[in-house]
């Protein structure tokens, strides 16, 4: 390979010290910071030579399951890349001269790793005393450091859940002044694809994804667990609280326009309720605070009883129920009027609870939403420092205001009002999260679209607004596979680490590795999709495919020609061929859906039976690859 996406020049498996320094500054000089650390002398630190190991992997005494797994991952991929088997030994047992020290070892501490100052996902890598140190904070810092080393030093790339790029070279070495301390830019990172396949989870962990199943399920101990919410759930939790309302207090529930109070939800509502609580009622605030303390205690009692060492949840959701039936009692309306937005009442409500919890649990953060009737930023009130505001802008297909095209960049002119909402909230809250969408829910069938370059612009914009938590729904059920989904995931995962880096080298590298000789054609296909969809002046999430002017015969003929040429170039490689053929799925389904409409333009140069057979095969392959339902 000529050049890596991270800007490091590779000579065999050696990273030059100058390239490391420049790349660290360019890639990781973001919010999480990059700092120089103590390191050994200048010169090559040879770890493998002639497919023979020159060191052992030295694991810290008392290593966590994640640090043990980090050592195993290092050993596995070094063996796969060089053919050398490196033994894993405890630090107290190691008598050799050279090692790759993994975890919170004594050597790491002597080399400047102040463990108590490292963030839970911050990694520390440096050469020291003719050895290499890979360490980090707990629970995930060392594991992430191991993956960082494998990517930077060994050229490993995790392309999808079923394939990795492992360069075959007999020598592995790093500069004698190799030094890096860094961590991800965003605190929470989740791409929700509804898979459940174990290899999908591992693939995401290798990309430093730290949240799964909408942050309500904990990861395995060997993955460093996961960022997760405490009980009762990670969003829309008010119904869970309200189901315990005493029956003799109807004033706890929302009032409608006719002055009638709603009935509380049933005890088995599972979070579903068509109403809201009365957030201006002081007794409701006290009730929520008391119940939240109960949830916190129950969560911690359960974790202590299990005895697995799982960290206590540090996030608790206080997002209102998923409906627009806000309370219209005089007090709630007065508060909304006072702050110029209903969100002001929500912030006033959560601030009271946040103050109560902070006195006992200063480490806990409460989350609320900016969504539907409480989407607009308020005036004259700000959330407490222990409150995170999750902005959730539905796609234009839901007619929610401000309308947003979720399939285009936040910088796109059509998203000007949605962008302004973000800018307004960035002035109100110091801590922001996003509940984002990468799909159009009103269009369940497949149709060609891609938002690769727009995604990069959006993540950079979010970062400028101070985003800390990123969650996106991109349900890849067998029947919702849009174009370039693997590239989209790969690019997002890279930008989660540093949104400031140039996205094009990342895109180019992925294309080269994922499509091989067909990469130039697949770049052409991506450019074709992104260019043609810009011809649509309406919002992609709201304009039906049957109404799109660029969905013409010429568009499908052009795409078919590009994909056919790509298939020829990789016909001898089943894996690359499958990657190319996946891009046909959206075109084939849209073509069949639009068949009668397109026939009005003239005879179609396609055989309907062939497309049907190909579509069936494409669905089967997608279901096997991504799992899910649909």
General description of the model:
With 630 residues, this protein is α/β, with parallel strands linked by helices. The protein is 38% helix and 13% strand. The protein contains 19 helices and 19 strands. It has helices spanning 17-28, 65-82, 106-110, 141-154, 198-206, 238-242, 282-306, 330-339, 342-358, 416-428, 452-464, 485-497, 503-515, 519-533, 553-569, 574-582, 584-593, 595-599, 608-626, and strands at residues 10-11, 14-15, 44-49, 52-53, 56-59, 88-90, 99-102, 123-128, 131-136, 157-160, 163-165, 172-175, 179-182, 188-192, 315-317, 365-370, 387-391, 432-437, 467-473. A 6-stranded mixed β-sheet has the order 6-5-7-9-8-13. The protein has a 6-stranded parallel β-sheet with strand order 14-19-18-17-16-15, with helices on one face. Strands 4-3-12 form a 3-stranded antiparallel β-sheet, with no helix packed on it. Strand 10 (157-160) and strand 11 (163-165) form a beta hairpin. Helix 13 packs across helix 14 (519-533). The longest helix has 25 residues, at 282-306. The two termini are 39 Å apart. The relative contact order is 0.09.
């Amino acid at each position: 390979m000529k050049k890596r996406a991270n800007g490091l020049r590779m000579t065999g498996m050696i990273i030059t010290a100058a390239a490391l320094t420049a790349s660290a500054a360019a890639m990781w000089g973001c919010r999480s910071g990059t700092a120089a650390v103590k390191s050994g002398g200048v010169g090559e630190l040879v770890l493998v030579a002639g497919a023979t190991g020159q060191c052992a992997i030295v694991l810290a005494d008392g290593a966590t399951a994640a640090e043990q797994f980090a050592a195993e991952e290092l050993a596995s991929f070094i063996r796969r890349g060089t053919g050398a088997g490196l033994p894993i030994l405890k630090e107290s047992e190691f008598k050799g001269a050279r090692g790759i020290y993994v975890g919170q070892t004594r050597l790491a501490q002597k080399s400047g790793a102040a463990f108590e100052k490292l963030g839970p996902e911050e990694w520390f890598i440096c050469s020291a005393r003719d050895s290499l140190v890979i360490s980090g904070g707990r629970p995930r810092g060392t594991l992430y450091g191991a993956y960082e080393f494998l990517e930077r030093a060994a050229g490993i790339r995790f392309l999808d859940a079923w394939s990795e790029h492992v360069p075959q070279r007999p020598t592995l070495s790093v500069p004698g002044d190799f030094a890096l301390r860094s961590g991800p830019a965003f605190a929470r990172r989740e791409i929700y694809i509804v898979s459940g396949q174990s290899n999908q989870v591992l693939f995401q962990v290798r990309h430093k994804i730290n949240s799964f199943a909408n942050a309500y399920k904990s990861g395995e101990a060997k993955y460093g667990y996961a960022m997760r919410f405490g009980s009762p759930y990670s969003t829309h939790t008010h119904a869970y609280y309200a189901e315990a309302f005493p029956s003799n207090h109807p004033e706890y529930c929302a009032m409608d326009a006719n002055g009638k109070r709603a009935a509380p939800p049933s005890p088995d509502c599972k979070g579903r309720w068509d109403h809201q609580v009365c957030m201006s009622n002081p007794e409701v605030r006290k009730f929520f605070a008391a119940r939240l303390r109960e949830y916190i205690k129950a969560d911690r009692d359960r974790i202590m009883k299990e005895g697995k060492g799982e960290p206590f949840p540090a996030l608790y959701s206080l997002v209102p129920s998923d409906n627009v039936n806000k309370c219209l009692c005089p007090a709630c309306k007065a508060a909304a009027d006072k702050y110029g937005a209903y969100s002001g009442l929500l912030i006033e409500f959560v601030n009271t609870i946040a103050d109560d919890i902070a006195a006992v649990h200063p480490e806990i953060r409460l989350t609320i939403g900016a969504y539907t009737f409480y989407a607009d930023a308020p005036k004259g009130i700000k959330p407490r420092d222990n409150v995170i505001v999750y902005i959730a802008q539905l796609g234009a297909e839901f007619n929610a205001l401000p309308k947003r095209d979720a399939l285009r960049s936040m910088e796109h002119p059509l998203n000007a009002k949605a962008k302004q909402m973000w800018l307004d909230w960035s002035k109100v809250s110091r801590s922001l999260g996003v509940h984002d969408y990468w799909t159009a829910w009103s269009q369940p069938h497949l149709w060609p679209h891609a938002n690769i370059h727009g995604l990069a612009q959006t993540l950079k914009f979010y970062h400028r607004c101070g985003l800390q938590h990123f969650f996106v729904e991109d349900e890849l059920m067998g029947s919702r596979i849009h174009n370039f989904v693997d590239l989209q995931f790969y690019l997002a995962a890279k930008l989660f680490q540093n949104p400031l880096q140039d996205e094009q080298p990342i895109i180019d590298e992925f294309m080269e590795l994922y499509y091989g000789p067909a990469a130039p054609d697949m770049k052409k296909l991506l450019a074709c999709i992104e260019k043609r969809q810009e011809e649509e002046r309406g919002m992609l999430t709201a304009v039906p495919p049957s109404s799109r002017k660029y969905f013409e015969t010429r568009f499908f003929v052009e795409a078919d020609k590009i994909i056919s040429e790509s298939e020829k170039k990789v016909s001898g490689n089943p894996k690359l061929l499958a990657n190319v053929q996946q891009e046909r799925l959206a075109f084939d389904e849209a073509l069949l859906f639009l068949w009668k409409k397109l026939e009005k333009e003239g005879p179609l140069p396609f055989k309907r039976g062939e497309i049907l057979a190909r579509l069936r095969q494409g669905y089967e392959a997608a279901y096997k690859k991504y799992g899910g339902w649909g």
